[in-house]
Amino acid sequence: MILHGLLLLSSAAALAEIPQALIPAQTYWLGCSPGDPECDIDEGIRRAGRIHPVQVSVSAFYIDRSETSVAEYRECVESGACSKPFDFRRTHYCNYDAPGRDNYPQNCINWFQAQNYCQWRGKRLAYDVEWEAAARAGSEDAHPWGTQPASCKTAVMDPGHPTKPDTVTDGCWRDLSWPRNSFAPNQYGLYDMVGGTAEWLMDWYHPNAHQQYYAKGQLTGPDSGELKVIKGGAWDEEAWAQRVSNRFAKPQTGNPDLYGSNGIRCVSPLPVNPLSVTPLLSPSLESDH
After folding, report:
1. What backbone phi and psi angles, to 5 degrees, belong to 51?
2. Which residues pair with residue 61 across a beta bridge?
3. Which residues 6+ apart lie within 8 Å of 13 measured at CB?
């Protein structure tokens, strides 16, 4: 059934064999975290020299606890429903078919492959407002673990080095992603919400989406565009990118080398309209946000 443009599932199909977590209905601040100096203009609304978040409300939904693995994606390929992605023979950091990497996150895929996989499971990719609610897990901090900047003690990332190229430092000095769930989950039990692979979302990218869409109640974002939103940092991105409000954007398809850092996490909306909005920047709260 399609309602308000969103795929809805019966309650019997809400959970699949791949573990998911129930994200409770909530109102929260979407975008730049308080005191975060790394926020870019596309992470909120600029006022008085600061980037402010937008207060939004989402209904409950289910989301995968882990990023989609190579083994899980291969099942879809072998069923004939998914196209085979580029593998390690194309470039060493593509995980598909690489020996010993079945439990690594599936990467080197475009948006269509990611969405097609989720639809094969009876699900879809997350919208930005859903993804960030899940990543924050009730916190206003910039990272799932708190305010401390990302490091190789908290996420699979590029720690950077003044004298080393990123081909050496990517993936915490491995120039690869790591096995899934290598670090502790957030408070909702979700792994790798930053680091690992950056995750394709449903939203079309707009640099001023918070003001032009989310604040006005259109929480699915623009109706069209040229790029899709990607969130969650990645194994080849430095610490500034490993924040829950950070947004990247890429074309849905194109040069496969663009997608080495991109992966999949599916959601299952409950059989209600999952998206609504509350007023933007209540005057009583504006000083704190």
Report:
1. -95, 120
2. 23, 269
3. 122, 268
**Token digits for 5?**
């443009």
- Go through 86-110 and write b for each residue having 16 or more CB atoms within 10 A of its CB, e for each that does not: bebeeeebbbbbbeebbebbbbbbb
pTM: 0.88
Residue 131: CB atoms within 10 A of its CB come to 27
Q: How far is it, in rounded angstroms, from Cα 136 to Cα 53? A: 13
CA triple 62-38-187, angle to 5 deg: 30
Asked if 157 and 178 touch (Cβ cutoff 8 Å), the reply is no
| Those residues with Cβ within 8 angstroms of residue 109's Cβ, 6 or more apart along the chain or in another chain | 73, 85, 117, 259, 262, 263, 264
* pLDDT tens string 51-101: 999 999 999 999 999 999 999 999 999 999 999 999 999 999 999 999 999
Dig out the tokens for 2 from the structure.
């399609």
- Token pair 């979700």: residue: 190
Cβ burial of 60 (10 Å; 0-12, 13-18, 19+) is middle
Q: Between the CA atoms of 192, 18, 27 and 246, what dihedral angle is there, to the nearest 10 degrees?
A: 30
Q: Is the separation of the CB atoms in 127 and 220 below 8 Å? A: yes
